[in-house]
Design a protein that fits this description.
By secondary structure, the chain is α+β, with helices and mostly antiparallel strands. Helix content is about 60%, strand content about 10%. The protein folds into three domains: about 120 residues, no CATH class; about 70 residues, no CATH class; about 120 residues, Roll (Chitinase A, domain 3). A hairpin with a 3-residue loop joins β6 and β7. The radius of gyration is 26 Å and the shape is elongated.
């Protein structure tokens, strides 16, 4: 029996967690309302007319309606906890961020902030408010797992750290991809600045018409081939560049004309760039999660699920029911 549990620890944990969440929801919703009532030897959760709904029937209905999402939450939590050891730094960061979260909730929900946090954490499979720091630690671990996955699949994902500058349309897009005389004059000024030997950062600060990035020299951050939040022409042009290369003008029917620079397209350069931009000494250790922050947080929403599923495979996850695994993979967006 013990060898079976060890071999199937993961699915056993999911079953225990899912059962605990289900039991809590049943108890919390109905405590004091139907005390002691049974039907055919089972506890009754509620009665509609003359029909009793038992705990097992309620459990089956809940799994049918919300089981996959609860299974997903338990899956993420279990993989995170088993994959990465909790460090003192994680605990310190979690404590600090928990204080900020509580302060924000107090501002938004002054009369019931604790209840709001409590219910949201319970919905994620935690005990409640008192598990806020545990949730944050698990979140740090998930980011670390995802960042390590990105690093391992760097070339496949076509990861790039990029900067850009933009010359906007004069009066909207003509639909032909040909700049007006005014647009061409502004583009020529950019080209002349590059010809003079100015750096991309200097040119972007002086000429870029996108105020969201011009002040920091046009730095956008780290993106990959699965990024869905950027203009398609812009992204394709950026991914085609070699490290250190500056593109020709890229026409975007949504915005105008871009010049893009590939700042880093290797893990080593990305790490060096992160150190340089954040003035981090060489003897200071940096986690993958730090280096890939903008990719994880802003651009590729598919990475986390893929990374967690791959990590689960390395841990030896098995499913007693292939249908449950198929449902979870569909929920995660994992293709065969």
């Amino acid at each position: 029996m013990s060898s079976f549990i060890k071999k199937n620890w993961f699915i056993s944990l999911l079953v225990v967690i899912f059962a605990a969440v289900s039991i809590y929801y049943i108890y919390d919703t109905n405590k004091g309302k139907l005390k002691g009532k049974t039907s055919n030897g089972e506890d009754v959760v509620y009665t509609v007319g003359d029909k009793d709904v038992t705990a097992s029937a309620f459990y089956d209905a809940m799994f049918e309606n919300a089981g996959t999402s609860v299974l997903y939450q338990s899956f993420v939590k279990a993989v995170s906890e088993q994959s990465i050891e909790t460090t003192d730094e994680m605990r310190q960061n979690a404590a600090s961020q928990a204080s900020s979260v509580v302060s924000n909730y107090q501002s938004s929900y002054p009369s019931n902030y604790r209840d709001m946090l409590d219910s949201q954490l319970k919905a994620l499979g935690y005990k409640g408010y008192e598990d806020l720091e545990t949730y944050l630690i698990d979140y740090f671990k998930q980011n670390q797992i995802t960042a390590e996955y990105a690093e391992a699949h760097f070339d496949e994902l076509k990861i790039r750290n990029i900067s850009y500058l933009l010359i906007k349309f004069e009066n909207g897009d003509s639909g032909e991809g040909t700049p007006t005389a005014d647009e061409k004059a502004r583009m020529d000024a950019v080209d002349a600045a590059f010809a003079e030997g100015k750096t991309f950062e200097e040119v972007a600060k002086e000429f870029s018409e996108d105020s969201s990035t011009s002040e920091n020299g046009g730095v956008l951050g780290t993106v990959d081939a699965n990024t869905t939040t950027l203009d398609t022409d812009f992204l394709n042009g950026a991914l085609a560049l070699e490290e250190g290369e500056i593109s020709d003008w890229i026409y975007s029917s949504n915005f105008g004309y871009f010049r893009v620079q590939n700042n880093a397209s290797t893990p080593e350069k990305l790490l060096a760039l992160y150190r340089e931009q954040n003035a981090i000494p060489e003897d200071t250790e940096i986690t993958a999660a730090e280096v890939y922050t903008s990719l994880l947080g802003d651009y590729d929403t598919t990475l986390a699920n893929k990374a967690l599923y791959e990590k689960a495979q390395t841990l030896g996850v098995t499913f007693a029911n292939s249908d449950d695994e198929a449902k979870l993979k569909e929920y995660l967006g994992i293709e065969e």
